[in-house]
Design brief:
CATH class: Mainly Beta
Number of helices: 4
Distance between the termini: 87 Å
CATH topology: Pectate Lyase C-like
Number of strands: 33
Largest sheet: 33 strands, parallel
Low-confidence stretches: 18-22
Radius of gyration: 26 Å
Helix content: under 10%
Shape: elongated
CATH superfamily: Single-stranded right-handed beta-helix, Pectin lyase-like
CATH architecture: 3 Solenoid
Mean pLDDT: 92
Length: 525
């Protein structure tokens, strides 16, 4: 009876994946593979996969139980199905993971094949907790749980991937990929990314990811092939590094990326990152995401047509980190056409949100709207006086500029054609920094930005060498001593339709001749 039910379940899976599963079902138990044997089944499982592919394809089925294996190579037209209660566990014998010509080892490996996938309610356990895989950050013996290289027509559904000793699920230079309903938990060792994507025409949805390193990370390794046409939705992610990230590898760039309806939450406790509140001043939690959303183009590629919408996040050092830099490549890339909207975020550090280019290279055409940022406060006046280094050749990360920035809201430098619309900052405690800081910016529009309880003596907005800044629809719920302070050469500043009734000084005298005021409500004298 149990075998009959299992066969019916497999048949239903095959029907739901018609392009991947032909009419043939290969139950490994029928080929002498025994569950819970305690010995390696690598050779037997590989023979069944090969047979399935040779015969035109089908579904290789793993029944309930634990199966120990080294690297398994998926072949054309094979769906790998793990039944509920089935566990494919990585062998502790490093000899079971053969050296690959160009790639790191993996428990599941597919290269230059098509019509393949992994599905079912079972678990792929890469056994990364075993110290045999803990040879250090550069050890070649650290493995992926699953690695797909140069493949097409990939379907990964419902399975759990856990305990990688390196990245968990890697998709590299692949086309037409669906990832849906999977669970990832990897907190075994350093560099435990969740999903790493580089390819085209990829959807990721309904996934739950908890890992030490980047949770969902898009990469672009190939100069001639951008990472493009990617949709990510309805995921719950937590990470001790970046929750949702584009970069750092960015040679080919990123194009047509849509990310929506995701929750970014506090990562689970682990033994590798319980240090932030002790080593970074101003951090108020043991376990946090470095950045909630990190967009990085630093290797000469172009990032364009990026839309991020409906994201909620909490316990994050830096909710939004956008970096256009020049790391190792002599090529200069581009960053343009980015829209981020409907974000609710809670930060717990002084490493505020930032949007930065580098000297003579501007990030451009960026719009942020309908955003609520809950900031911890605690910034001091001296933080507004610190010179922020350019570090244009450094690895892009939220701590690249140090443990604090001169604004609790956004630090913005080398940016043009930027719109900030309907943004609210909430402060838990007093913060003596600016709300917004602009340095070397052009064509900036600030529309309906406000802070609840801005109690700082510092000006609300600080500008340095800014051209064409328009501020409209501003309001505040408490008295402000100063609204706009400028240093350097700035021009073309327009204040239109703002409520300045609680503001004592609109701007400093040095910038007065560059300001045009229209329709503002001013303080009652």
């Amino acid at each position: 009876m149990q075998k009959t039910l299992f066969s019916i379940l497999i048949l239903l899976v095959c029907i739901s994946h018609p392009s991947k599963a032909a009419s043939f079902i290969y139950n490994v138990a029928d080929y002498g593979v025994k569950a819970n044997s305690g010995k390696s089944e690598t050779a037997s499982l590989q023979k069944i996969i090969d047979l399935c592919s040779t015969n035109g394809g089908g579904t290789v089925c793993i029944p309930t139980g634990t199966y120990i294996s080294g690297t398994l190579f998926l072949k054309n037209n094979v769906m790998f199905f793990l039944d509920r209660g089935a566990v494919l566990r990585g062998s502790s014998d490093l000899n079971e993971y053969p050296e690959l010509r160009t790639h790191r080892k993996g428990l599941i490996h597919a290269e230059n094949v098509h019509n393949i996938g992994i599905c079912g309610s079972g678990v792929i356990d890469a056994n990364g907790n075993d110290t045999v895989f803990h040879g250090g950050a550069k050890s070649p013996d650290r493995i992926y749980a699953a690695n797909f290289e140069g493949c097409s027509q990939i379907d990964i559904r419902n399975v759990s991937l856990i305990n990688a000793s390196y990245w968990t699920l890697r998709i590299s230079d692949c086309d037409h990929v669906q990832i849906r309903g999977i669970t990832i938990r990897s907190t075994s060792y350093f560099n435990n990314d969740g999903i790493d994507l580089d390819g085209r025409n990829i959807t990721v949805s309904d996934c739950i990811i908890d890992c030490i390193d980047d949770a969902i990370c898009l990469k672009s390794y190939y100069k001639e092939r951008p990472c493009e046409n990617i949709a990510i939705s309805n995921c719950i992610v937590s990470s001790n590094c970046n929750a949702i990230k584009l970069g750092t590898a960015s040679r080919g760039g990123f194009k047509n990326i849509a990310i929506s309806n995701c929750v970014i939450k506090r990562p689970e406790q682990n033994d590798y990152f319980d240090y932030k509140k002790y080593t970074i001043p101003g951090v108020t939690a043991n376990y946090t995401n470095n950045s909630g959303i990190a967009l990085e183009i630093v290797d000469g590629g172009t990032m364009e047509q990026i839309v991020i919408n409906n994201i909620t996040m909490f316990n994050t050092l830096t909710p939004i980190f956008i970096r256009y830099g020049q790391r190792h490549s002599p090529l200069v890339g581009m960053m343009k056409g980015i829209v981020i909207s409907n974000i609710t975020a809670t930060s717990n550090s002084l490493m505020s949100c930032s949007i930065t280019g580098i000297p003579n290279q501007y990030a451009e055409n960026i719009k942020l709207s309908h955003i609520i940022l809950n900031c911890p406060g605690g910034g001091r006046k001296e933080h507004t006086l610190r010179t922020i280094p350019e570090v244009e050749n450094s690895y892009p990360e939220n701590k690249i500029f140090g443990a604090d920035l001169p604004a609790y809201g956004f630090f913005i430098r080398h940016v043009r054609h930027l719109t900030l619309e309907d943004i609210q900052f909430n402060l838990d405690y007093k913060d003596d920094r600016h709300a917004l800081y602009f340095d070397d910016c052009r064509d900036i529009t600030i529309d309906k930005v406000k802070t609840v309880s801005h109690l700082s003596e510092s000006a609300y907005i600080r500008t340095n060498n800014v051209e064409n800044l328009m501020i409209r629809g501003f309001s505040t719920e408490n008295a402000l001593p100063s609204f706009l302070e400028n240093s350097g050469r700035s021009s073309g500043i327009k204040l239109i339709g703002n409520d300045f009734s609680e503001v004592s000084q609109l701007y400093n005298e040095e910038i007065g001749q560059e300001v045009k005021e229209v329709g503002n409500l001013l303080e009652n004298k």
